[in-house]
Amino acid sequence: MSKTTHAATYLPDTTYYNRTGAAEFMARLEREPLLMQGPMGSVLVASADAREVPAAFWNLAEPQTVVRIHRLYEAAGAQILLTNTFQASQPALERDEIMPPMAEVNRAAVDNARAAHPQVLVGSMGPCGIDWTLSDSPEFRAARDAYRAQAHALLAAGVDALLLETFTSIRDFEPAIKGACDAADGMPVLASFAIDEDANLLGDGLTIEGALLYAEKHGAQAVGVNCCSLEAAAVAVPRMVRAARTPVMVRPNAGAPVKAEDGSLVWHECPERFEDACAAWLRAGARIVGGCCGTTARTTSALADALVAYTSYG
Question: Which range of residues forms the domain containing residue 208?
Fold first, then answer.
């Protein structure tokens, strides 16, 4: 498909979209809070000999490793698994010199996650890296097409929903939400932003309330924050619940990594802090909880304990 294809003429083949899974997922969000798995990228690059290997490369080169990580998260209590496709759009794959076709990389990631038998499977999509000036420019259309193509690849491979995550500005988010919704054909699209300590977007300073309203207006069916500090999450969650009309997500990170003597990256993970924080998120009304960069299945297990305590005792 040409990179200048307009959304109005784009007719995706939705034959294999998992509409039953999507409906069940959204119905569960209405009934109960759900736990999403932790990150793939920071786990994959944690060893010294892998820190320069792009996360998407593992989907085809070392699928057993990707499957093992998903299974660890599932065993720790994650109800939602997230595909290893955060940087698997065509522009990102070209930047990282990953040669297999984009659709093949994304399908492999879906297959790897499905091997862990998830209750819910969500396709991860991050910023594609294309800068643009005007919404009618070739650069904007190229970005929108890149998101559209990845969204369709993930949905055709059988995910239950899409997650646009770690967006730092509405400018970067605009072609993403439009491209994803071009392909979604009613399938759920979730949106998550990276924020500072005052709950403003890192890239443009927009308040989290403004970001959520924009996302919902343009088709997001759940909204939230990720890859922020626990302190930022504590500020943001009550404000998001008050402002949002859709389910709210929260997935903070474990802080900045440090480089060990062997060259590996080390995060100072503290599952107990996440468990304590999760109780407050749930009381405030969050519907999807989890951890982002630097967390592991240890944090997922702690969050699962918090979720069980909340659903058992309130």
Answer: 21-313
> How far apart, in Å, are the Cα atoms of 280 and each of 32, 114, 270, 307?
15, 31, 16, 11
Residue 6 lies in a domain: no
CB 249 within 8 A of CB 226: yes
As a whole number of angstroms, the distance between CA 250 and CA 252 comes to: 6
pLDDT in tens, 9-35: 566 899 999 999 999 999 999 999 999
* Separation between Cα atoms, residue 90 and residue 9, nearest integer Å: 21
11 in a structural domain: no
Instruction: Band the pLDDT of 256: cuts 50, 70, 90.
Output: confident
Residues present in the chain in total: 314
- d(Cα 112, Cα 261) in Å, to the nearest integer? 32
The enclosing domain of 282 has a CATH number of 3.20.20.330
179 domain-assigned: yes
Residue with tokens 């443009």: 204
Q: Is residue 176 packed enough to be buried (19+ CB in 10 Å), middle (13-18) or exposed (0-12)?
A: buried
* Alpha-carbon separation of residue 102 from 37, 66, 90, 258, 302 (angstroms): 23, 17, 6, 32, 35
pTM higher than 0.90: yes
C-alpha–C-alpha distance, residues 60 and 57, integer Å: 6
9 occurs within a structural domain: no
d(CA 291, CA 299): 7
Nearest Cα to Cα of residue 184 among 264, 122, 91:
122
Number of structural domains found in the chain: 1
Q: What is the DSSP letter of 227?
A: S
